[in-house]
Design a protein that fits this description.
Blueprint: E1 5-11, E2 16-23, E3 28-35, H1 36-45, E4 50-54, H2 59-68, E5 72-76, H3 78-81, H4 91-102, H5 115-146, H6 159-167, H7 175-208, H8 210-216, H9 223-232, H10 242-248, E6 253-255, E7 264-267, H11 273-293, H12 299-307, H13 310-331
Parallel strand pairs: 1-4, 4-5
Antiparallel strand pairs: 1-2, 2-3, 6-7
Helix pairs in contact: 5-7, 5-9, 7-8, 7-9, 8-9, 9-11, 10-13, 11-13
C-alpha cells in the first residue's frame, strides 16, 4: 500500500490484473501484475484514489467494488484508450495507456452500472438470444424440408406449414426426416414458451414502472424497447440534449469534414447497438403503417416517407425517437404529438 498514489490504472483480465500506480505529479510509481485476490485486497487497503479501467465485461463489477471502498471510478471506452498505447501492445503498455487516457481533462467516461441495471440487461439479452436461437432452428428446418419440395415463407407465423407437412403421412417425406423434424418442432416449442414468458415479464414491468410506461407512449416503442433503454442507457440527465443521446446511440452521420467543408456519411454506429437496432425496427413498423394508411397526421413524417427510401426514413425517425426518449424522460411527461 502506498499513500501518495493518486490513480490506479488497471488492465482487467480474468485472473491476472496489470496495475499501474500513478503519483500526484503524474510519475509511474509501479506497474506490476496482481492476482485476483491481491487486486481485491489492494482496493480494500489503498486510501481513496482514482481507479481507472477500460470498459469491458467485468469493469462494472470492479467499479462497484472500488466504489464500495471509497474510490473514484473512471471507466474509459476502449476506443479512447487505444491512441495512448505506445508502440507494442502488452499489459504494461495498456495499463499506462489507461492511466494517460483517464488523466485527460476532456475525456469522457462510462457511468458505473448498478447490479440491478445489469440484471435487467441480462434478462433482455437472454430474451434476444432465445429469439435468435428459435429463428436459427426455424430456418434450419425450412432449409431441410425445402430439399424435399416443402417450401414455407420466413417467420414463426408460417411454422404451421412445416408442421402440416411433417404430420402428413401420405406425403413423400422419409421417416427419418419426419423424426428429425419432430425434434426441431419440439425445441422450437420449448423456446417459444420461454420467449413468451420473458416477453410477458417485460410487458408486466412496463405496466408497473412509470418510466417504462412513459416511454411506451412514444409511437414505435413497446415494452421490449423501453426495457432495453432502461437496461443499457445511463441516466439520461447526464446528456445535455436529446441530440447528444442520439449521438451516443450512433444515430448521427459519420463525419469526414476538413478544411471547413462538411462531409457527412452514413450513421456512425458508434453507440449502443441493442437500443439503436430496436429503435430502427420500431421506426420501420411506424413507416409501414404510414404507407398502408396512405399518409400520417404527422406532416414531417409524411413528407419524409414521400421523399426518402424506407430505410433512410427509418433511421431519421429513429433519431427523432431517441431525442423524444430523452425529452419525455428528463421532463417526466408523456409523449404528445406536435
Amino acid at each position: 500500500m502506498t499513500t501518495n498514489i493518486s490513480m490506479l490504472a488497471v488492465d482487467l483480465s480474468k485472473g491476472s490484473f496489470q496495475v499501474c500506480a500513478v503519483g500526484s505529479d503524474g510519475t509511474v510509481l509501479y506497474n506490476r501484475a496482481l492476482s485476483r485476490a491481491r487486486f481485491s485486497a489492494l482496493l480494500a487497503d489503498q486510501p481513496a484514489c482514482i481507479v481507472a479501467m477500460e470498459a469491458c465485461a467485468t469493469s462494472h463489477h470492479w467499479g462497484r467494488v472500488a466504489q464500495k471502498n471509497g474510490h473514484e471510478v473512471r471507466i474509459v471506452p476502449a476506443v479512447y484508450v487505444k491512441p495512448f498505447v505506445k508502440r507494442q501492445k502488452n499489459d504494461r503498455a495498456d495499463a499506462e495507456a489507461i492511466a494517460e487516457a483517464a488523466s485527460r481533462p476532456a475525456m469522457r467516461f462510462v457511468a458505473v452500472k448498478s447490479a440491478e441495471t445489469q440484471g435487467r440487461a441480462v434478462a433482455f439479452r437472454t430474451h434476444q438470444c432465445l429469439v435468435r436461437q428459435r429463428t436459427q432452428l426455424i430456418n434450419a428446418l425450412r432449409g431441410h424440408l425445402a430439399e424435399f419440395g416443402v417450401v414455407a415463407p420466413k417467420g414463426p407465423a408460417n411454422l404451421k406449414v412445416l408442421e402440416e407437412a411433417l404430420a402428413d403421412e401420405t406425403g413423400d417425406l422419409p421417416a427419418e426426416v419426419r423424426a428429425m423434424g419432430a425434434i426441431y418442432l419440439d425445441q422450437i416449442a420449448r423456446l417459444t414458451d420461454v420467449i413468451e414468458r420473458l416477453g410477458d415479464e417485460l410487458e408486466a414491468a412496463s405496466r408497473t414502472d412509470a418510466d417504462l410506461q412513459r416511454l411506451c407512449t412514444i409511437p414505435g416503442i413497446g415494452p421490449v424497447t423501453a426495457g432495453a433503454v432502461a437496461a443499457f442507457a445511463p441516466e439520461l440527465d447526464t446528456f445535455d440534449s436529446g441530440r447528444n443521446f442520439a449521438a451516443w446511440l450512433g444515430l448521427v452521420p459519420r463525419q469526414r469534414s476538413t478544411g471547413g467543408k462538411a462531409r457527412l456519411g452514413s450513421v456512425s454506429k458508434m453507440g449502443q447497438t441493442d437500443i439503436r437496432r430496436l429503435l430502427i425496427v420500431g421506426a420501420m413498423s411506424v413507416i409501414r403503417w404510414v404507407v398502408r394508411k396512405g399518409g400520417s397526421a404527422n406532416r414531417w413524417l409524411a413528407n419524409l416517407v414521400a421523399r426518402k427510401p424506407k430505410m433512410v426514413a427509418a433511421v431519421a425517425l429513429a433519431n427523432k425517437m431517441a431525442r423524444t426518449i430523452w425529452a419525455v424522460t428528463t421532463k417526466q411527461e408523456n409523449y404528445r404529438m406536435a
